[in-house]
Design brief:
Elements lengths: L4 H9 L19 H9 L9 E5 L4 H14 L4 E4 L11 E3 L2 E2 L2 H21 L7 H15 L4 E5 L16 E4 L7 H4 L3 H8 L9 E3 L5 H13 L4 E3 H4 E9 L2 E8 L2 E7 L4 H19 L6 H10 L7 E5 L2 E5 L5 H14 L6 E5 L7 H8 L5 E5 L9 H10 L3 E6 L2 H11 L5 E5 L2 H12 L22
Parallel strand pairs: 1-5, 1-6, 2-5, 6-7, 7-8, 13-17, 14-15, 14-17, 15-16
Antiparallel strand pairs: 2-3, 3-4, 9-10, 10-11, 12-13
Length: 464
């Protein structure tokens, strides 16, 4: 009897899941031996498909999606692996921009589970984790459909991430900032070394603009030692916004002897940086002998979609901005984008929750200049922070806290009730907040994982 989707999800969720663990794992919890064994046990499924490997702190998801959309516009069949998901776990494994079906998900679990059990019992490295299984599922599905390319987004860090068993045609490192400091390190240099772990011997690496020169120094050193040709996007390309509104932005990108006139529905100056980075990656593929035309770059960036990233919607006569920013740098960029795209003359009502291990204080500091009337909420994510701690941190920063809710939906409903025409409702702090607000707005039925209920001991950790 075929495995049902619900049973497949439960089976997958029975594995150790560091994403939802309330304790931040140290480096000793991560290694590649078990993932390598799992991939080898399933026939080396990670090999044989040209790969683009993408790491970074901010923009790695958007850049991965842009690269996928460009390659798809060229006519390639492209597998895309990203994390986390917004509403359903099938979003993590896509063909082009479309998630696999629930039937495919269940079939992949069925196909891989004997290998998962063998590795756990006979491999000598302990049980396979949830993220390792999802990574293997992506490799397996892309192998099953005979994908022309696979675009693999790193889950955490890079050096010891389970995706880092590939031999990519090109590695891509997006913007680096302090995040996951308990696991990756508390300095830019330490974090950059972890991201630089995806740089491979003699394989090109594309590095997005970096706010910190220390990160760029690390990447130059590691690339030099690996004899890996390195494209520094901030030096090799120029980009300029021509015009923008809430539907998207028109811009030009010039670099490496080419010039592009482009439009994308993704908002924010940082998306122009991501676009230039995606273009550089596809040009590297061209240099490696793959065909990617200018028309495909133009069409791919026009067609790209990425939910929960600076989405602006109207709801009951109110303007609502939803963004999954989850660290101080990304929230700072969000605030910059709001000043450009949105009339901020009315009140800003903030619906906010962060996950433990992220810098709640840093994010709230970046939001403080908006003088928000703030509703502290708690998402369904098991690592969603303690609301009392978050409210106290906000008040210490001079931010007015007007309410606290144990649910995102409750806080959002309160924001609607207290708002007036002309006010802005801003929902941010984590992708969990973004996903639950979108579910509320669009009537999306979320997947509930009862075996992963939040711990009452989880806190908002002021890590930076």
């Amino acid at each position: 009897m075929p495995l049902s989707f619900e049973a497949a999800v439960a089976q997958a969720m029975s594995l150790t899941d560091f994403e939802r663990s309330v304790n931040s794992p140290g480096h000793s919890s991560f290694h590649l031996e078990r993932m390598t064994l799992l991939a080898d046990r399933t026939g080396g499924i990670h090999q044989g498909i040209p790969t683009v490997h993408v790491a970074g702190t901010k923009g790695k998801g958007s850049t991965s999606v842009m690269i996928t959309s460009i390659l798809s516009a060229q006519g390639y069949r492209v597998g895309l692996f990203t994390s986390p998901h917004l509403h359903t776990v099938v979003e993590r494994v896509r063909v082009g921009l479309e998630p696999i079906t629930k039937g495919d998900f269940a079939q992949l679990i069925d196909q891989l589970w004997p290998s998962v059990e063998w590795v756990g019992s006979e491999g000598g490295y302990g049980g396979v984790t949830f993220f390792e299984l999802l990574t293997a599922m992506a490799f397996q599905h892309f192998h099953n459909i005979k994908a022309d390319f696979q675009v693999m987004e790193v889950g955490l860090g890079g050096r010891l991430d389970s995706t880092n068993i590939v031999e990519p045609e090109v590695s891509v490192i997006t913007s680096i900032s302090l995040d996951h400091v308990a696991t990756l390190g508390d300095t830019i240099e330490k974090i950059a070394h972890e991201k630089a772990g995806i740089i491979k011997q003699s394989k090109p690496v594309v590095v997005a603009p970096q706010a910190e020169s220390d990160a760029l120094d690390v990447f130059r050193k590691v690339a030099g030692e690996a004899d890996a040709p390195m494209v520094e996007v901030q030096n090799a390309f120029n980009w300029e916004k021509e015009e923008s509104d809430l539907s998207g932005q028109r811009f030009t990108v010039d670099g490496m002897g080419r010039s592009y006139e482009l439009w994308t529905p993704l908002l924010g100056d940082y998306q122009l940086e991501n676009a230039a980075t995606a273009i550089a990656a596809t040009m590297a593929l061209n240099d490696a002998g793959f065909s990617v035309s200018e028309d495909s770059i133009v069409q791919g960036l026009k067609d790209v979609r990425w939910a929960g990233r600076l989405e602006v919607v109207e709801h009951e006569g109110r303007r609502v901005v939803i963004d999954g920013a989850h660290n101080p740098y990304s929230v700072t960029r969000l605030v910059e984008a709001l000043r450009e795209y949105v009339d901020l003359e009315g009140r800003v009502i903030l619906v906010f929750a962060a996950l433990g291990g992220h810098s709640a204080i840093g994010m709230l500091s970046a939001l403080a200049p908006l003088r928000p009337e703030t509703l502290i909420v708690r998402s369904r994510h098991p690592r969603s922070g303690n609301t009392a701690n978050a409210a106290e941190a906000a008040r210490e920063l001079g931010i007015e806290v007007v309410g606290v809710s144990d649910t995102v939906g409750g806080g959002f409903d309160q924001a609607i009730e207290m708002s007036e025409p002309g006010d802005l409702i801003l929902c941010t702090g984590s992708l969990s907040v973004a996903s639950e607000v979108l579910e509320e707005l669009r009537g999306i039925e979320p997947e509930i994982y009862p075996n992963l209920r939040p711990s009452t001991d989880s806190t908002l950790t002021p890590t930076v």
